[in-house]
Amino acid sequence: MAEWEGAIARVYSGFGRNGQFCGTAFMVSDRHLLTCWHVVRDAPKDTLYVRNATSCGGGELPVRFVASRQDVGIDVALLELQQVLKEGAEQIPLPTG
After folding, report:
1. Cα–Cα distance list, 64 to 2, 41, 73 (Å)
2. Each residue of 20-34: pLDDT tens digit?
3. Are residues 33 and 63 in contact, defined by beta-carbon separation less than 8 angstroms?
């Protein structure tokens, strides 16, 4: 498996077979995913979920829209899982300081 591959998730809007693929997100903590604002901009915020991330157990997990910023050169959104992932779940480390 490529480095951080398990931290990559697909974002969907609408549950089950009717879910529409919106884009990709990346696990950055045991509960948060980072994506682009344009991925979730038009999606109903109460129907977002992620799947296919090894860290997420490969299933469908509901997420909550937390925050976003879209400006010149900035296109980012933060999503939050409704449950904390198990300890040791793969994440992409963000720089600090």
Report:
1. 28, 13, 24
2. 899 999 999 888 999
3. yes
